[in-house]
Amino acid sequence: MQTTQSPTLTTSQLPQVHEPRNDGIPLDLDWVMSAQANTSAIERRAKTLPGRRSVKKDYQAAWLCKAISLMDLTTLSGDDSEGRVRRLCAKARQPVRADILEALGMPDLTTGAICVYHEMVATAVDALQGSGIPVAAVSTGFPAGLSPFHLRIAEIGESVAAGAAEIDIVISRRHVLTGNWQALYDEMREMRAACGDAHVKAILATGELGTLRNVARASLVCMMAGADFIKTSTGKEPVNATLPVTLTMIRAIRDYQDRTGIKVGYKPAGGISKAKDALVYLSMIKDELGDRWLQPDLFRFGASSLLGDIERQLEHHVTGAYSAQWRHAIG
């Protein structure tokens, strides 16, 4: 069994780098239609991933701290309140108990971002002042993306005006399912333009796209149209982030970077709740895309319950004992 080296994250090395924006390229239908996905081969490769990497002790703690720094701490519930969002923002500022962070030598560790509905953007921006933690807003009729198009565009503008530095948009799945790639490209271009200086993450809702080939082609079209990130899911579908979908999407990212020189980010969201799963995703990213993608400007976890399990693992590393989940509550 191979051992993945520690990412050597320290507080003095918390990433401040940012890739240039993806301005996109003209739609290349020949490239899109040539994209294929060997489902059985992808699934076989994905099945091998959990057993191929083993990280222990200090190496594991370093990787788990890295995972926290790449996390979009999220609340997207109908009963969200200002109090809940402010508690979540406090957790983003100090994602692990102070004594554990001190023991790890990581007193300044924070999450990568906070992700909320538009209604809570202003509250989150206020609560995070001075922290450097960006606010991401889900937009464009999240999660279904079926509201009138002009309202979806207006919603992006409202979230940017409220202070959102990142916008998570949802694509129209019907364009993928009917193979209308020009319509998907045009939609994504207009949404990208509406975001202005805010980075845009395109949510593909992969659990509703039918095939991995559709996932690969939709990934390419969204990147051609200017997506800064491509993201698996809203977290509201029956099937969210999976290893086969991740492998398909990050190989599309690698292909796009090879052909254009442009690096696009990746965000798996939904269904990642255990520290061991986070380690598998990180090792896959390192293997397939390289160390540069292990930075928050190019990789994020869309998760909240994941943080609680990581914190328990870090306490076990420091103290040698597991604690109850209530000792690491998010809110």
Account of the protein in words:
Helices cover 45% and strands 9% of the residues. With 331 residues, it is of the alpha/beta class. The chain has a single domain, classed as Aldolase class I (TIM Barrel, Alpha-Beta Barrel). The chain has an eight-stranded parallel β-sheet with strand order 7-6-5-4-3-2-1-8. Helix 7 packs parallel to helix 9, helix 10 (212-224) runs parallel beside helix 11 (243-260) and helix 11 runs parallel beside helix 12 (275-288). The N and C termini lie far apart (38 Å). Mean pLDDT is 91; it is low at 1-16.
Key attributes of the depicted protein:
331 residues; alpha/beta; TIM Barrel; 13 helices; disordered N terminus; Aldolase_TIM; Deoxyribose-phosphate aldolase
How is the secondary structure organized here?
Layout: H1 29-34, H2 39-48, H3 57-69, E1 71-74, H4 82-93, H5 98-104, E2 113-117, H6 121-127, E3 135-138, H7 149-162, E4 166-170, H8 173-177, H9 181-195, E5 199-203, H10 212-224, E6 229-231, H11 243-260, E7 265-267, H12 275-288, E8 301-302, H13 305-319
Parallel strand pairs: 1-2, 1-8, 2-3, 3-4, 4-5, 5-6, 6-7
Helix pairs in contact: 2-11, 3-12, 3-13, 7-9, 9-10, 10-11, 11-12
